[in-house]
Design a protein that fits this description.
Layout: E1 9-11, H1 14-21, E2 28-33, H2 39-51, E3 54-59, H3 79-88, E4 93-95, H4 99-102, H5 121-125, H6 127-144, E5 148-152, H7 156-168, E6 174-178, H8 198-204, H9 206-219, H10 225-238, E7 243-249, E8 264-272, E9 275-283
Parallel strand pairs: 1-4, 2-3, 2-5, 3-4, 5-6
Antiparallel strand pairs: 7-8, 8-9
Helix pairs in contact: 6-7, 9-10
Amino acid sequence: MTETTTAMLTLRTIVELREALHDAERPVALVPTMGALHEGHLALLERARAQCATVVMSLFVNPTQFAPGEDLRSYPRNEDADARLAAAAGVDVLFAPPASEIYPDGFASTIHVAGVSERLEGAARGSSHFDGVATVVAKLLNIVGPQIAYFGQKDAQQALVIKRLVRDLDMPVLIEVCPTVRAGDGLALSSRNAYLSDSERVRATALHRALSAAARAIAGGENDAAAALSPAREQLAAADIEPEYLEISDPETLVPLAHVVGPVLIALAARVGNARLIDNVIATPGQEPR
């Protein structure tokens, strides 16, 4: 695409997309999404628009990253609304393929990223979750051929898996991880927030309060991980939320830590009503949490 482009293209096949991008001005950005766009997605698009000449947004609810019994069928979908938001954000090409385009008959390949994919979300949701993520992201990177791809820190483990995938397979793309976007009350923006009732939405704010409490403990000098997590558990209990996991881990390997000696990832997953929510913060001894 060029500076004279005024209308966003919506394309549904790989052939069409590659043809449209053949002479596109570089660098090309890719912002992968599953739709149900919110301000977090729009922040990624804004960063991509500021840094790249051509912006591609994919809109694809990837079936292979949902385990049986998860919310594939009910996952929020509104392509018309998403397309309007994408166009307003300056997207040049919206790639919205059907599942049969990404996974044609006879598709038989899966990418597994060992180690970093097997903890936290991998342990909670099963190995097939990140296998599905890694496979679809690898396909999108191969299809689009971007110079930069943008992901959010809210899905910190996903970003680590994708960085490892790109490194291990020598893919010529920079993975840029952008800060988590939060509502005024601290709740991390997520498409699954749409599942929350008004009262559940209030309860869900305890997730960020919990993470912040643990981060403040670490910033204040607490180096015992279990002790640092104690005020976080208190915040969750006060909101009647039982975490699926609440862990302090190495921010690059996700190996659980018993003692804090440098920056750490504090990660949390919990169900609030019908919504399964995840969040995280980076905490460093002696520094305000971020």
